[in-house]
Write a structure and sequence with these properties.
- With 293 residues, this protein is mostly helical.
- It has one domain: MetI-like (MetI-like fold).
- The chain contains 15 helices and no strands.
- The mean pLDDT is 83.
């Protein structure tokens, strides 16, 4: 009787329309996504500097994270990711509002201009920032000294340079979901609120932000997760002074040849980032925001 109660719902689930068509992609996701994560999780409990799955499980790698202060780079990465989201939210909101509501026929041209940098390698763009703006002997510093006699400070290998690079690289990932969110705000609703005497601040707070919330949430989560795992920005713009968790993971897997330690760092990043994202989604009640219920 118990077996029948357990097996019947399983077969009923397998008989759902369209499930058979989804089986290939489910298998592909299991092999390409879940499989590597399981291997990384297993490796994180292997003895340090071992390259096989043999041996008794140990938590020594997680102890090393605390003892050798790897958690500092993890905290730094979370701080940079949060700072990137805040800065881009403030910068992108007026631009997104203009693209969605104000620029009209020029919105397509401006969107193309914003998208064009994505066709250039991230490394090339960041080194362009280094040569033009951030390096003390760069183009902008040389021009300022020649024309105005000013000595610009060298901003390279600093927290400021790293944050600027993160904001520059991940700006489209915040901007375009925000544009889609603001596009959901009907002009008639804004005009009705204005006719009833609402100020611009009240319209933004009571109408635009709640209605555009799906785009804001998606853009913020995309930006946060991508910034959290950023590697190139910390290496090119931060050097050895600004070390983020992705740099420690790469070093453990390559130069350190310590796969179990790299796996432990990866699992900590995955668990903490995934838990935080799930907590935010739970607190924000995404179903209510998307008007599903």
């Amino acid at each position: 009787m118990i077996a029948r109660l357990l097996i019947r719902p399983a077969f009923a689930w397998l008989r759902q329309p369209g499930l058979h068509a989804a089986v290939p992609i489910l298998i592909l996701l299991a092999i390409g996504f879940i499989g590597p994560l399981v291997l990384v999780a297993i490796f994180s409990f292997m003895p340090p500097r071992s390259f096989t799955l043999d041996g008794a499980p140990t938590i020594e790698n997680y102890q090393t994270v605390v003892e050798q202060s790897f958690y500092l780079s993890l905290l730094r990465s979370f701080a940079f990711a949060a700072g990137t989201v805040v800065v881009l939210a403030l910068v992108c909101y007026p631009v997104a509002l203009g693209l969605a509501k104000l620029f009209g026929r020029y919105a397509g041209l401006l969107t193309l201009i914003l998208v064009l940098p994505l066709f250039v390698s991230e490394n090339v763009r960041l080194f362009g920032w280094v040569l033009f703006l951030l390096k003390g002997g760069g183009v902008l510093a040389g021009a300022a000294k020649a024309v105005f006699g000013l000595e610009l400070a060298d901003m390279l290998y600093s927290n400021t340079a790293t944050l600027m690079g993160l904001c520059y690289v991940y700006l489209p990932f915040m901007l375009f979901p925000m544009v889609l969110g603001l596009s959901m705000v009907q002009r008639d609703v804004v005009e009705a609120a204005s006719d009833l005497g609402a100020s611009r601040w009240q319209i933004m707070r009571e109408i635009e932000l709640p209605l555009a919330m799906p785009g804001l949430v998606i853009g913020g989560l995309l930006t946060f997760v991508l910034s959290l795992g950023a590697l190139t920005e910390s290496k090119v713009l931060g050097g050895s002074k600004v070390i983020m968790i992705a740099a420690d993971i790469e070093s453990a897997f390559t130069f350190g040849q310590n796969w179990p330690l790299g796996s432990a760092l990866s699992m900590l990043l995955l668990v903490l980032a995934g838990g935080l994202v799930l907590l935010v989604l739970r607190k924000l009640d995404l179903d209510a925001i998307l008007k599903r219920r």
